[in-house]
Amino acid sequence: MRLGVDVGGTFTDLLLHDEKSGRTFRAKTPSTPEDQSKGVANGVQLICEKAGIKPSDISLVLHGTTVATNAVLEGKGARVGLLVTKGFENTLHLAKSWTPGPLFGWINMEKPEPLASLQDTRGIPERMTARGEVADALDEDAARQTIKQLCESGIEALTISLMHSYANDVHEQRLKALVAEQFPDMSVSVSSEILPEFREYDRAITTVMNDYVRPIMIRYLSRIEQRLAEVGVTCKLHIVRSDGGLMSAAAAAERPVHTVLSGPAGGVTATAMTARRTGLNKLLAFDMGGTSTDVSVVQNGVPEISRSTEVGAFPAKVPTLDVKSVGAGGGSIAEVSELTKSLRVGPRSAGAMPGPVAYRRGGTEPTVSDANVVLGYLPSKLLGGDMELDVEGARQAVAKIGDSLGLTPEDAAQGILDIANEVMLGALRLITVQRGLDPRDFGMVAFGGAGPLHANAMAELLGCYPVVVPANPGVLSALGFLEAEFKNEFVKTLIRSASEEDEKKIWDSFTALKAKAQAWLVEQNVDEADQGISYSLDLRYEQQGFEVSIPVSADAVESRSGMAQVHKDFHETHERLNGVRFDLPIELVTLRAVATGSTPPVDETPPKGGTTDANAAIMDTQKAYFNGKWYNTPHIDRDRLAAGARIPGPAIIRQYDTTTVLMPDHYADVDERGNLMIWPTAKGA
């Protein structure tokens, strides 16, 4: 029994998988922003009741969290002290020396305060060269005095980030030992452990961010483990990383910066799983929740990995799934500007409390969810009848928008949805059109509580079909957590010419990284049969500023040969990405080894029984507003549909965890795995 838990801004989603029977159980419970662990504990009790099991029967809990992200975005992290090489105290303030242009943009720039303030930054007399040679020895007496002064000033965590420590970390490790001697309880992060790569600012800010969120993450993990124990859960808790891998709760407490995009990772992993099982090689992940919408690209069943991301105004150089987020969700608030009298939707959200007006939790401002209620897209009861909506309250709230614009409530609601869809369309264009990809070559996987509500309209705008609505779309991110594998990345910066005389150093470095990866897999208790290690090299032409990552086969690492093939792959990849190749020397930058530990796949049992006659699954018929007029629209019980069923549009397809809107001039087929496949009627058979 494995449990995936996804804490969102409005709902906490849970999915329980029984490996023996292949059955899955799902639950949604309101999130508790004041203390997310409460909502998790409530959800665990609810899903155990649904499955008819005791919490102690659960063998593993896999959790995606936004605690680290929210701490940075809200500026509510710890007070961090920073030790740098003397003379480089302004590293975080100078950042990358980038300002918006032209002049007017620079004048109006509101530069964010660094995560470690200048008054809490100290320079240490020492210096290492880029080759790892000691230029100036570490002044230990001065270091002890500085550490004592800084740690007694009231800081909650301490970051050590010295020049060129990626090449030689002896000074950083000695400073860490000096801190432990004087202040053994101080939380310390060392840049050569968190990010042993070149580029001083990226390494410093990523390590500082780790300390900034670390005390908060430690408190959160302690609370959630305590609450799980209180409701009877006895198994281990694992946290989902930003790159879709897994890490233990202890590892997450040590390196919380690797969880900054933990939440959206599950949905991308599940989309990749859907691609492999449906045979659709190109898919867009469309995850619309209550607060935001996350989109990403999956090609050939593999999600795209980015080596860095941004959390608010700050870069975080950690491996992440390449996800773009926009502030448009079911709880996004609609308002009319007093100045321009134009309609705006989001990014301000009603969140879980008070939530949309229709949720009856005290909300008074109209939201995207309220607009869906007004148009008849959402039924009067959600979550299998457990949650009754205030239809009239939603209509009155949306009518206020209509009164301001001279529109009927229906047209005002349609306007709210149109604007929300355009915001999400911008994110989808960003990951396709602006990267040279044609969205018409892709299908779309719709999930999240509101994804299936809007996916058909989004596909019509982009021309990407089919729209795939999985069997458990409302809790698909939680399902993705169950599909995640243990993962960790080990890197070494080695800037030098990628010539034959340096090959021995390259293979020696890969051997050292392999040993670290194997040791980590043993620490995580991954069985030898489930262990895997993949390798890559970051290369560039000499004098280039950015690198291209090229895979290196395990056979090449074992045989210590094959660099000619790597060079050939680099030229071809560079030409494919940038449209040009150069007859220039190639420069090696960074070596990487990624350790993975596979987990059992989630083989959901396909639907059995049911009917292929959509008319036999009609629950009732209600009015819904499409294309400026009302239609008598059937509401169909998805749980009564068998593989092979075809539903003509318009229709509202209902299930426990979400509602799917099927527009006119479209139809939906149920495939052999229970997925809904939405196509335009013009496509024909």
TrEMBL record:
- Please list the residue ranges annotated as the Acetophenone carboxylase-like C-terminal domain: 501-672
* A Gene Ontology term for the protein's cellular component: cytosol
List the GO molecular function terms: 5-oxoprolinase (ATP-hydrolyzing) activity
Domain spans labelled Hydantoinase/oxoprolinase N-terminal: 2-181
**One Pfam family named in its UniProt record:** Hydantoinase_A
Q: Which residues form the Hydantoinase A/oxoprolinase domain?
A: 203-489
Q: Which InterPro entries match?
A: ACX-like_C, ATPase_NBD, Hydant_A_N, Hydantoinase_A, Oxoprolinase-like
Q: Which GO terms describe its biological process?
A: glutathione metabolic process
- What name appears for this protein in its UniProt entry? N-methylhydantoinase A
Which species is this record about? Sulfitobacter marinus
